[in-house]
Amino acid sequence: MTVTEEYPISVRAHAVLFDLDGTLVDSTKAIVAHWTRFGNENGIPPERILATSHGRRLIDTLIEHTPHLASDTIANELEENLPKEFGDRCQSIPGAPELVQKLDKIFPTNRRWGIVTSGTSPLASQWLEMFGMPIPDVFITAEKVSRGKPDPEGYVVGRKLLGADQSLGKNVIVFEDAPAGIRAGKAAGAVVIGIVSTHSKDEVVDAGADFVVTDLSDIDIARETEDSDDFIIRVLRQA
User: Fold this and answer.
1) Does 26 qualify as catalytic in the annotation?
2) What is the model's pTM?
3) Count of domains in the chain?
4) Catalytic annotation on 215?
């Protein structure tokens, strides 16, 4: 992590990629309730599942703990029902709706941001709809990648779709909360801003985040210049 007391800090970026659960939406209580019930129903201590499930695709968690249930059909059904059953335990991350709305206002006809989530499309789209956040054009969900986080595949595809070619020096900012996602973002060559929502600051730092904030109210964003296709991301304060 960048060590400095000189805040705010400005970072130039051609594109922005967000994780979803724990980054835009605080779904922790809903996910804990889901895996607790699932573990109890399948004779697995819930804490064993929860120790490794966050930030990973649900199908990968099924493969690890209940391989006989590991199918895309079952994974999609579980995730589609999760918001319906436990959505009342979920809330948006502070500053998240305002930040994505501001991104859309800066580039209203050519979105420069996207989402890379370990959740399936049925789950992720429901979370966004629940909190009035738009589904971006670049919306990479679990079923759209062959390897989930910490593999960088999702973020590599995301930056390509947003035209942020690393070889041309086009920087990408990734917002993440889970160590698996932070490592994926770093492996994709992005600057990663870690959010302390589901893991401790030490865990976020140890995973390799370049900056660490409490939530998205610690972030501001503006267009670099009127004619520029780049953003200036301002990290207002550190966690």
Assistant:
1) no
2) 0.88
3) 2
4) no
